[in-house]
């Protein structure tokens, strides 16, 4: 009876919602409206976001059903190899032979058949530098996007050769890039029950991986450890931060020398951040005042639906409806803005459906020489998985800010940064949830002055900081700050880890 009633309500809500949905996401044409339309909305939205990056993975999730494993060899151990990418252009810096570049798979113990893929690049500066893990969002996009287009050691040239990135974060850290959740990138399973649907599953997998990584690399256990990432990693990062801190307190396994985490243009507190969309769009001239008033009428239903999703226990129809209602705010703004506005960087125009062209990554990683170097064999590469995105829909509207105050109180450093021209996870919404967060230093943080963040004597951003908490709005950057402002991003990371982020004067990263 309950199920039939909920489906009746959902059908009625669909009738109300369907006219509101943006033309940016097309529903299957039907002679009648049914539950399929609203249930398929997240995946259709994901497919559009993926194609806007000029990414066209062969599959919508990495289910390697053809891989047969010997049960007698099923151990939760890392299988890792040192590798060299082919076609690396020579430089005046260290040769790749002098550096430790590693690729590996980890058999997740709390799974039926999942293997998590990662890349590990030893520091170009000093082996005692902190260990940093980077998590790309989506949900469902590979961290190889960051490796080749943001803060990894290399950039991909048009001829598919690799050039050294002068501002790769391996110049200040020993850095891990992980393909997660399972089904993303080169991470795969042969059992669909391994697909994750919430932060508990995601954070436990990453914690298990980190325990195995430090067991495999005991020389790094003493190094400081930081968690970083962007976009939907605004959900992942607080969850894994809490999981690592909990493990340390409970003396589980290896003690991880966890010092802090940084969220870049993240989605962390949806209720506050979705409400900020109309304000940001108006302030940046994407919509007019009359448009603002109309779009703002969508906000109360979004806010109420987020609360309903939370009280439902994070599952069922309520969270799907919440995702649809709140996404409509963003889609309505995009419909009004029109003219190919790039929602990752509103200074730019999308050419047709193409907002960025990251296709060289897929082409590069499909080369046999590259696959042989990485040891991935014929495992598929899923650059961004619409199925993983869809699987996390009940997690989408969860507020992950709630676990951060306890970490601040225990002295864990937190940096939230955002490029000023990103719409989709804009700086205004991020600034608002940071200031609304209740912790012992809230008033002093909010009362603290906003000061220039300087690089080479020039203002590169606006910084607000108190105690372990910092918020940085980065100038002349969109959603992907390390891609748009690589020098400033590297200096941000280095100075933050060294506790010097609030210093007024900067010098250029070397």
From TrEMBL:
Residues 1-24 form the signal peptide. InterPro entries: AB_hydrolase_fold, Peptidase_S10, Ser_caboxypep_his_AS, Ser_caboxypep_ser_AS. It comes from the Eukaryota. Coiled coil: none annotated. It is an enzyme of class 3 (hydrolase). GO terms for molecular function: serine-type carboxypeptidase activity. Pfam families: Peptidase_S10. Gene3D superfamilies: alpha/beta hydrolase. One of its GO terms (biological process) is proteolysis. It is found in: Secreted. Keywords: Carboxypeptidase, Disulfide bond, Glycoprotein, Hydrolase, Protease, Secreted, Signal. GO terms for cellular component: extracellular region; vacuole. Its EC number is 3.4.16.-. PROSITE patterns: CARBOXYPEPT_SER_HIS (PS00560), CARBOXYPEPT_SER_SER (PS00131). Probable carboxypeptidase. Belongs to the peptidase S10 family. This is Carboxypeptidase. It comes from Rhamnella rubrinervis.
């Amino acid at each position: 009876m309950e199920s039939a009633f909920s489906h009746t309500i959902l059908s009625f809500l669909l009738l109300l919602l369907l006219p509101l949905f943006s033309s940016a996401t097309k529903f299957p044409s039907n002679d009648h409206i049914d539950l399929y339309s609203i249930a398929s909305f997240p995946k259709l939205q994901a497919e559009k976001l993926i194609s806007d990056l000029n990414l066209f993975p062969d599959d919508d999730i990495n289910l390697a059903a053809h891989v047969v494993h010997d049960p007698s060899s099923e151990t939760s151990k890392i299988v890792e190899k040192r590798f060299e990418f082919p076609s690396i252009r020579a430089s005046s810096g260290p040769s790749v032979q002098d550096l430790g570049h590693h690729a590996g798979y980890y058999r997740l113990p709390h799974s039926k058949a999942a293997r998590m893929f990662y890349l590990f690049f030893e520091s170009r500066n000093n082996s005692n530098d902190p260990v940093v893990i980077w998590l790309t969002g989506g949900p469902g996009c590979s961290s190889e996007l960051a490796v080749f287009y943001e803060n990894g050691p290399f950039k991909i040239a048009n001829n598919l050769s690799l050039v050294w990135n002068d501002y790769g974060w391996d110049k200040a850290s020993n850095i891990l890039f992980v393909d997660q959740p399972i089904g993303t990138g080169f991470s795969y399973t042969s059992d669909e029950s391994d697909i994750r649907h919430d932060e508990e599953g995601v954070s436990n997998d990453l914690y298990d991986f980190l325990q195995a990584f430090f067991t495999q690399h005991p020389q790094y256990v003493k190094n400081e450890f930081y968690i970083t990432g962007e976009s939907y990693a605004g959900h992942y990062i607080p969850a894994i931060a809490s999981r690592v801190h909990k493990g340390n307190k409970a003396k589980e396994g290896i003690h991880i020398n966890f010092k802090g985490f940084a969220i870049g243009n993240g989605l962390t507190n949806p209720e506050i951040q979705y409400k900020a969309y109309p304000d940001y769009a108006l302030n940046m001239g994407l919509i007019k005042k009359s448009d603002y008033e109309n779009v703002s009428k969508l906000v109360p239903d979004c806010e109420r639906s987020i609360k309903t999703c939370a009280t439902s226990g994070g599952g069922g129809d309520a969270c799907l409806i919440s995702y649809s209602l709140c996404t409509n705010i963003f889609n309505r703004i995009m419909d009004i803005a029109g003219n190919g506005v790039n929602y990752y960087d509103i200074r730019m125009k999308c050419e047709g459906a193409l907002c960025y062209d990251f296709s060289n990554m897929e082409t590069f990683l499909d080369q046999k020489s590259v696959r042989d170097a990485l040891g991935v064999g014929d495992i598929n590469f899923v650059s961004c998985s619409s199925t993983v995105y869809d699987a996390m829909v009940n997690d989408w509207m969860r507020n992950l800010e709630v676990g951060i105050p306890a970490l601040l109180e225990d002295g864990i450093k937190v940096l939230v940064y955002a490029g000023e021209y990103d719409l989709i996870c804009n700086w205004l919404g991020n600034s608002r949830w940071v200031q609304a967060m209740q912790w012992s230093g809230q008033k002093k943080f909010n009362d603290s002055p906003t000061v220039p963040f300087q690089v080479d004597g020039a203002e590169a951003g606006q910084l607000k900081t108190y105690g372990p908490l910092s918020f940085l709005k980065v100038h002349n950057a969109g959603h992907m700050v390390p891609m748009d402002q690589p020098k400033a991003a590297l200096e941000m990371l280095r100075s933050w880890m060294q506790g010097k982020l609030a210093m007024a004067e900067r010098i250029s990263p070397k």
